[in-house]
Design a protein that fits this description.
Blueprint (H helix, E strand, L loop, with lengths): L20 H9 L5 E7 L2 H6 L11 E4 L4 H17 L7 E8 L1 H5 L2 H10 L3 E7 L25 E2 L2 E2 L8 H6 L5 E6 L3 H13 L4 E6 L3 H4 L6 H10 L6 E4 L2 E4 L9 H5 L14 H21 L2
Parallel strand pairs: 1-2, 1-3, 3-4, 4-8, 7-8
Antiparallel strand pairs: 5-6, 7-9, 9-10
């Protein structure tokens, strides 16, 4: 493997074949011009990259609890600023926190909000695989409407998750930070540009990155890039950024594919293609259309 690609995150971790987050980590940290310190919430990324006594991380790394990666990196960043003012540290360092959707949308939302509100100089990256995958595929508030999980099973009285996804981008945007963006591991060039911008912006920045889970979404490991592309080609996962409050869509097509093209690639949605769940599919398409139109209306 290219040495430059593994400069910050080594091969030899135990992530599943077909998992997106190794590429997400390498791509984002690869855009760092200065030294990097990483905090990582408990989750798939942490348990697969720090299998004692080994570590895939080639940067200073802190494993924090599920709920406090943003608080941890805030404290380290503030200590660095104090030491820098005292002349004890000369080098420029960038601080980055990684968390899954469980540790970001849900358990870690309070510490993330606090760190954003205080204005710490760090980048927070959420790799979104739509559930608590490390503990067996329980639903999170990032789990899509209609998906099967261990805590939203399909049965006579249930078609899967009955609640819509939380709009984390709008929650983060409410903190009026200078830069945040939604990206997708299948669009590496777009992710690189957004990572570069986020790392070079002073103050708190945020990246929400689509990261398919082959194990719990139930699709072949070789298909993760094709599947992730479909998420954007159907407008299920739009690529956009918000810079100083201004929205910009980064990918658009005149004829988006039906969202069913994305859903049918995964076992977690196979029940939706039964006749009795036709209305659920229609509702998902409506949710996707409405959110896309909202983004278009927000874009100058």
């Amino acid at each position: 493997m290219n040495k430059e690609l593994t400069k910050h995150f080594a091969p030899g971790h135990s992530a599943c074949a077909g998992c997106g987050f190794p590429a997400i980590v390498r791509t984002i940290l690869g855009e760092a011009k200065n030294e990097v310190v990483v905090a990582n919430a408990t989750g798939c990324l942490e348990v697969t990259s720090t299998l004692y006594p080994y570590s895939a991380w080639k940067v200073p790394y802190i494993h924090s609890a599920f709920e406090n990666a943003a608080a941890t990196i805030s404290g380290v960043e503030k200590a660095y600023e104090i030491l820098k003012r005292k002349g004890k540290i000369k080098k420029k360092i960038k601080f980055v926190a990684f968390g899954g959707d469980g540790g970001t949308y849900d358990i870690g939302l309070q510490s993330l909000s606090g760190a954003l509100e205080r204005g710490h100089n760090f980048l927070y990256v959420c790799y979104d695989n739509g559930g608590y995958m490390n503990t067996g595929n329980q639903r999170s508030s990032a789990t899509p409407y209609g998906a099967f999980t261990e805590t939203t099973p399909v049965g006579k009285k249930s078609f899967g998750k009955m609640e819509t996804r939380k709009n984390l981008m709008e929650i983060v945007n409410a903190h009026r930070i200078a830069y945040l963006a939604q990206a997708n591991v299948a669009y590496i060039a777009d992710l690189k540009k957004k990572a570069k911008k986020a790392l070079e912006t002073e103050g708190p920045t945020f990246l929400l990155v689509f990261s398919p889970c082959t194990n719990n979404w139930k699709f072949p490991t070789s298909e993760y890039v094709a599947l992730a592309k479909l998420a954007t080609e159907t407008n299920f996962w739009p690529l956009y950024e918000i810079e100083n409050g201004k929205y910009k869509i980064n990918f658009a097509t005149e004829k988006p594919k039906p969202v069913s093209e994305f859903l049918k690639t995964q076992g977690r949605f196979k029940h939706l293609f039964k006749e009795e769940n036709k209305k659920v599919l229609e509702e998902i398409q409506k949710l996707v259309n409405d959110e896309w139109q909202r983004l278009v209306d927000m874009t100058p």
